[in-house]
Structures are given as structure tokens and as C-alpha cells.
């Protein structure tokens, strides 16, 4: 009997595994990096061990430190979660050699399915449909070019050793092939340490449908329905749902049986996901097998009523699967979205900083899988996912409605998120009709308002002014004071607005030029503003942090900075010259020195955060006064990096012009 489980992961998946393990009576051990010392999963576990600094290579990918933590705490089994070491055959082997049960498949199955070339050959031998292509062993560029002539165009170049879109290229014609092979090899080598490539005939605008499978050590294997993961951005899943609106009962059975064949062909044990591409004629083709629990497993749990982590632990104990295929039934519909700290209006740039307030919405059929809470810091070290938001309904439309409301009603202040982008997808007519393919976001959603920089309307500005003016005046002053007029200046993104606020009793009128909006205050306390707007009583949530004000209402969120009492920074369009870090991260290059002349928009510093490079640019013309950052520095959000002073000669020349 296994008694103590170490979870070799962090964040929401660690929290989710700990919750089930505790319910089943296991003692739990968390591991954490120095950056995660106060994380939710650390506090939830019975014991926790620090395994190194923030860098994943020195902590969550440090198998020696994880195995040492298991030894020190007396753990007898290890759950890898997803990502990190979950699909590392060497780690699974090391667990076995250390006398620990690895809660996952055998190392041989992980190794086989980790190679696109070898796994595709194995699936062909097992009778699983595959995309026509070329899988030569360590094929040279010339061999790939020759094979492409037989496959035809368009075709896909894929890295044999990995996924997630890295090392993957769509090639439309022969003239593009050689350069794309070169680029795919480079990406694959950098990402996976292996530059082996394969070729496949491109399936144009397919659906991405995966089958959840489970197998035990007694030779039993079942499938638990499918998940549709077609809504993707750059080959990364954004929305997942079960069942698929495109899959018929006959197709479900055929795909499920093929997935079971795939599992049995590699002597699989535990949870696995067999991914398929499905064309418009409902032909399906093996894509890959993920040898772990998937991020999107909750939608399967909600429609089957099963706890898949409990199934994993049962199989790890050597017990048979709890259900036979005929005992597995699907009920209702579930949809999951991944809520990220990222800015869709600026290329989905990861966001860092304090999560001032985070309160998941409550409601029927809702589930939030999260590893963060109010007050946590979103750092550049790890994936910026805040939560998986899942809604179940008796039918697909009910699940959609519940999910949209859950996204709109969840309180998030402090960091920009993709929440509005997600709710717009779920409400979209094409998605609602079940017609979204992998091309959906690129073709039908590229001009969506959620992808554009936010422009605040007078109503949103009036609500901000209402909070700020009330804060200055006080509740009693509102109801008794005579009419007053107060100017307010707000910064919204890269622009500023000047408002004139006229207050008389509980009525507040906000003017911006010729545009005016009037509100009546009902109450304001504990971060909740209640107003009457055009005869309609409504509420607005808010959080004030210094001069920054965060607001949420009408299914949208926005923020402003009160700069009413800040000194002017110079002529219109000229910044302060105090260049600050836009997020936590590492300085990977400094491009200027003191005394350099720069123009507004010039790149001064390159900041790396969450595996992406972010240029930090000059906000004005001038001369570099001081440089406060060096290559290799770790910096915090809003930390001063460079100071730019005015170019006195240029200013004199400008002043002298008639």
C-alpha cells in the first residue's frame, strides 16, 4: 500500500493532485523553488521541501533534488503532474531505481511516444490511422527534399522530439522547403536538444480532437470520450471542451477504439491522451500521444463524473481500472479556458506584478483550478496561467452561458489578463455553432475588439471619476455639500484624459470636452460602487492601490492612474525620460551608454521575461544621463533602468525657429 505522495510540480496541477491525494488518505509532499516559498501548493501539502532557486533548470527540472526530497520525507510514490519532468523517461527510470513508484506510464512507453518518428511507425503497425508522410531515421536535408516530392504540397515539417508548435513549419511550395527545414532544425535543436525532423501531408483547417485513455497493469484499457481542442493560438490550446460538437457517436467509438489500440501497442499504464487531426469529412489521423495527465482533463471529469487523479493513483497501486468500457457514460457538456496574465492587445505579452485581488466567481456548474490567490506575485519565472476556468451544463449552450458569466464575474485586479478575449471566443457565433477549426482564431477572430488596445468611453471614465471624487470628498460630503466642480486628470494606457467633475448631492456629472455622462451614487464601500445610470441600478467593483485604480463592470475591466497632482512631463507627446521595467525579468542586453543621443522609440534595453524578449524603448528624444541596469541583472517591475535628459542644443534650436 502506498502512503506518501510527492508531487513533482507546482501551481494549479500540484494543488489539484494534493486535493485528491488527501481525500484518499495519502500524506502529501510538495516541492518548491525559492520563488514559490509562499505558494498555495506549499501550504496545502503536509510537508514541503525547497529544491533550488527560481530557474526551472535548477529546481523543477532538477531530478536529483526531487528524488532527494522524496528520500528525506519518506515518500514512496511521485506524481509528476504535467510539463517539467512528466514526460521524461529518464526521470521515470530514476524513480524506479530509487524504489519509488512513478505515477505514470512505463519509461519505455514515454520514450516511444516522445519520438514523433518512432511513435508514428508504431501506430502504423498497430493499425491506427496516420497522416501520410516521411519518417526516415535522422533524415538529411536532401532526403527530406526528395521525400517532399512524393508527399506533395502543402506539407508540415515537424520536430520528431517535441511538440507545442516548436520546430513545426507549414510549407506551401517547393521553393519554401529548404529554408523552412533549416529553421525547423534550429528550433528543434534549441528546444529539445534533437534536430531530427519528419514530414507530413498538411491537413488543412482540421479539428484537433483528443481521446482520454486509461490502462492498467492487468492489460485492461478504456477510453473516456473525447475533448475538442481546436481553438488554438500558435499551436497552443486556448479552449477545450467535451464532448466535441463535431464528433458523432460512430466517430467517437472509432476514435476511442483506435486510441485504445495505441495504448495497448506500447504496453501503456495510467492516464494518456491520444491526439488526432480530424478533417472536414470526419477522417481522423494520429497526431501524438501525451503520456501524462493533460491540462484539460477537468472537462472529461465533469462529463464522466470520474476523478482521473484517483484513477492514476489506483493504477499506480497495481489495481485494475475502476470501470469497464460499457460502464463509462457521458453526461452534459463542459468547456474549459485558460486564464492567463497576458495582454491580448499587445501580442499576448506576459504580465508580471502583484495580483492585488483574485476572487473566482461562484455559481452552479463552475470549477476553478488555480494555484494563486490574492496578494501573490506573478513572476517571470513560470507560465503565467492564473487558473483554468471550467463550466459544466446540461447542454453546450448552458455551459457557454455559465462560462461567460464566470469570466465576467471573477474579480481580478493588479495584472492584465486575457479574460475578455476568452469570453468573446465563447460568445462568438462560429464557436457557438460548433464550427471552429484550428484556423478559427487566425481567420475569424483576428480583428476582434479584444485584440485591440482598450479605449475607455465616457461611462467607464465617469465610474473612475466617481470613485476618485468620492474618495476625496467622503460619503457625508456627497449628500450635503453644494454643487462643486473638480478637474481630474487620468492616465489610461499611453494617453491622458482631462475630466471636469460636477458634483451636486448624490449626482455626479463628468465632462470630457463636449461629452458628458451623469451618474447617481447609491452606495460605495468595501470595493463595491453602486450607482444608478440612466435609470438602471448597477454595480462596479474597484480596487485602489496608491494612484492606480482598477475597475470591473459590464463584463469588462479597466484601470486608470490619477495624475491630477503630478507635474507635467514636458511638451505634448514627450515622456518623463525615466525609463522603467515594464515587468519582472532579466536584462539580456543594454544598448546605450551615458552620453548617447537617442530618439523617442529607440530600443534602450532588452528585457527577458517568461521566455520572451521585450524591448524597452525611449519615451522621448534626448541624451542618456544614467544607465542603472547591466546585462544579467534581475529587475523588478517599475525599477528604474535608464534616465534620459533633454538635449539642450536641440531645445534651443527648436525655440529659435520662427
Automatic annotation (TrEMBL):
Entry GO MF terms: ATP binding; biotin carboxylase activity; metal ion binding
Location of the Lipoyl-binding domain: 576-645
KW Chloroplast (keyword) present: no
SUPFAM superfamilies named among the record's database cross-references: Glutathione synthetase ATP-binding domain-like (SSF56059), PreATP-grasp domain (SSF52440), Rudiment single hybrid motif (SSF51246), Single hybrid motif (SSF51230)
Pfam families, sorted: Biotin_carb_C, Biotin_carb_N, Biotin_lipoyl, CPSase_L_D2
Cofactor: biotin
Pathway in which the depicted protein is active: Lipid metabolism; malonyl-CoA biosynthesis; malonyl-CoA from acetyl-CoA: step 1/1
ATP-grasp domain location: 120-317
Transmembrane segments: none
Keywords associated with the record: ATP-binding, Biotin, Ligase, Nucleotide-binding, Transit peptide
Highest taxon listed in the record's lineage: Bacteria
Function (record text): This protein is a component of the acetyl coenzyme A carboxylase complex; first, biotin carboxylase catalyzes the carboxylation of the carrier protein and then the transcarboxylase transfers the carboxyl group to form malonyl-CoA.
Subunit field text: Acetyl-CoA carboxylase is a heterohexamer of biotin carboxyl carrier protein, biotin carboxylase and the two subunits of carboxyl transferase in a 2:2 complex.
Name of the protein: Biotin carboxylase
